[in-house]
Write a structure and sequence with these properties.
binds manganese (II) ion; globular; 35% helix; alpha/beta; seven-stranded parallel beta sheet; inorganic pyrophosphatase (n-terminal core); Diaminopimelate Epimerase, Chain A, domain 1; 321 residues; 11 helices; six-stranded mixed beta sheet; 2 domains
């Protein structure tokens, strides 16, 4: 079957598990600029499929950021589709928009997407979607626990890291009793919260210099409700690979509702990472500029400089206050 927008049949987690059981040679695909949920989800799914006697390869359009390499399985992630394989299934994890899956020549086989983005474009044959879940990994953990699958430590760590990073380590409003239950069960099975947090919290000296540069640009509009920080070329050169982490700088300012991190991609290309604190729907705000994401975390690109993009962005953002 094929990949085309808006044709997916929505299925339950039991049907998603049946899809995994009824195929044998998987290509697992994540999104560009992979985040902790994407990396952890793809690695955990890979390991569980292998434990079920299946074959699976993982591919991401961009390399796994150093910070997530605390998961050993990341060593097996490809940035190209391995040649000479005969896949019978494609599984996309945490990937709401097909164009974020990279310009790969995907095999024409049965496809499933497991995702928690409400804006999912329904581009696969089958879609298992839980948009109220904090992370794709929360969906996978539930699927695996339902099947009484025994997961090794690296797999438990991968899912715990994934749920932790997408929920701001249980601080964001997407954190539910179920999120915490899945995290609890992962810790009971072997995930190591302090190891994961210690590795994720470590910063290189370059990252600390980058933090200082970005923090120095914080400025606000609308009595401090819209807070913007810049990650210019120099900062991107220092730690662009982990650029999403710097969105927490404007977000933590007292009184901020909409936080925007402007990232330098080119003289006329500004990538914006968006976060909201209590009520603003930054997923819809990002969609106004052709981007997407969640209610409280999203991203978009404006094809202009910081100076050109900012008034356009602020005018649009004010509607969501
Ligand atoms: Mn996610």
């Amino acid at each position: 079957m094929s990949l085309a927008l808006n044709h997916a049949k929505e299925i339950t987690k039991e049907e998603a598990m049946a899809f995994l059981k009824s195929h044998n040679r998987f290509l697992l695909v994540g999104h560009e600029h992979p985040d902790g949920d994407d990396v952890g989800s793809i690695c955990a799914l890979h390991n569980v499929l292998l434990s079920m006697g299946k074959e699976a390869d993982m591919v991401l359009p961009d390399p796994v950021p150093q910070v997530y390499r605390l998961i050993k399985t990341t060593e097996l992630v490809h940035t190209f589709i391995p040649e000479g394989r005969d896949y019978d299934a494609l599984v996309f994890t945490d990937l709401g928009n097909l164009e974020r899956g990279g310009n790969f020549d995907f095999p024409d086989v049965d496809s499933l997407c497991i995702d928690h983005h409400r804006s999912n474009e329904r581009y696969t044959d089958y879609l298992y979607l839980q948009y109220k879940y904090a992370a794709t990994a929360e969906m996978l953990a539930e699927m695996f626990f339902d099947e009484n699958i025994r997961m090794d430590k690296d797999t438990c760590n991968a899912l715990y890291m994934a749920i932790g990073t997408d929920s701001g380590f249980f601080k964001f409003s997407c954190t539910s009793p179920h999120t915490l239950l899945m995290a609890s069960r992962l810790v009971a099975m072997g995930a190591d919260p302090s190891y994961i947090s210690n590795r994720l919290d470590e910063k290189t000296e370059e990252a600390m210099k980058c933090y200082q540069l970005v923090a120095g640009t914080v400025h606000s509009y609308d009595n401090g409700k819209i807070v913007i920080a810049y990650m210019g070329k120099e900062a991107m050169d220092l730690d662009g690979e982990n650029s999403d982490a710097y969105a927490s700088i404007p977000r933590c300012i007292n009184g901020c509702e909409i936080a925007a991190l402007f990232k330098y991609k080119g003289d006329r290309e500004t990538r914006i990472s968006l976060r909201s604190k209590d009520y603003a729907n930054v997923g819809e705000l990002a969609a106004e500029f052709g981007g997407g994401g969640h209610w409280k975390a999203s991203g978009c690109t404006i094809h202009d400089s910081f100076e050109g993009a900012e008034p356009l962005f602020v005018k649009a953002a004010e509607k969501y206050l």
